[in-house]
Amino acid sequence: MSQRQMRLGVFVLGTGNHVAGWRYPGAADSFVSLAGIQTIAATAERGKFDLLFLGDGLTANVNDHPSFVVRFEPLTMLSALAATTMHLGLGATSSTTYGEPYTVARLFASLDHLSGGRAAWNAVTSSGAGSGANFGRQHPDHDSRYEVAEEFVDVVRGLWDCWDDGAVVANRETGQYIDASKVKSLDHKGRFFDVKGPLNTSRTPQGRPIILQAGSSGPGLELAARTADVVFSVVQDLDEAKAAYTALKSRLPRFGRRAEDVSLLPGVMPIIGATEAEARQKLNTLQSFVNDTNALSILSNRMGMDVSGFAPDDLVPDLPLPDTSHGFARAMLSKALREKMTWRDLNNLTGAARGHWVICGTPEMIADTLQEWFEGYAADGFNILPPYFPDAFDEFVDQVVPILQRRGLFREDYTGTTLREHLGLDRPANPMFPR
Question: pTM score, two decimals?
């Protein structure tokens, strides 16, 4: 095994990450099937993956990706998966704009206990402007959302630290249940939140659940560099990926952190065939299901504007970054300008992987590309986005993972029990109770 090991997560959308993946022969067509999600989790654990990740959103648009419209609340689903998996990390999105720190801290602490230390919180500011209408609020602008998120994440981490290890004594002889000296209130009074604490949940197996983030704007990168353990990124190009890697890692020393303290995982959709031609044919079949409208809602969301008024065969112009998701818009605009793409091309790209990177080829070709990015410090690993389930994910686990293992790039078995251990991270000290 090489010293530096690749990290692998799987991004689960039950109907497949491709907008029409559910139409592929044999593909699953539901994101509300517990049995289907359990099968995906079992495959991920068989492949020794670090993490299964469930994104989330707070709106339903019937013209959107099928798994965006109809899906389970992710913490509910992960709690069920905690009972049927043993090693796999379990990560989910929860919004800092439309949530409450106490509730989020309690939910993920509970999941960490239920899973024996495998919980991960994806702290997002919610880029969808339509979310506010479901909460009786005006959706805040980008920078305001990140100002709230900075304090929100600090409060959640503080609540996780209100209990010290060993606070639950449960001494039958003396009758003492709690060592009160090992429990403190947070007493946070900030610009956006007043939270007393402590949680009514003891310190978790990981000390703190893992924090995931995906921000790529200036404020997003600052928050990630200060607080995240894993960062998801949106890339389309190797040089851009290397620049994004450097942009994140160079920020870490200012917060007293090392490069290995944060793993950067670009999203990638692998299309695998016995030959390159066979892989291309799979991609062509999938793309034949994309039309001018069935990915348009996703494209409009990614671009932060209604793009339906643009002629499909017009070239994509140089546009300002939107107030929604900078990462997707920046990566897609850069690719569109570099390759002189039309709006139809961009719609097809969005349908394929929702704006993420697509690679196509044999298992060896896929492994070669991932190795190049990993060893070239464009990534610490990858968030795998199968176009459809279960077969496309089975192909990656059964055909690509063994190649990475033979090359010493990825583990052959789990050596720890917690997600923090999978990621090579120490259990954090508790600043509320210094030793």
Answer: 0.92
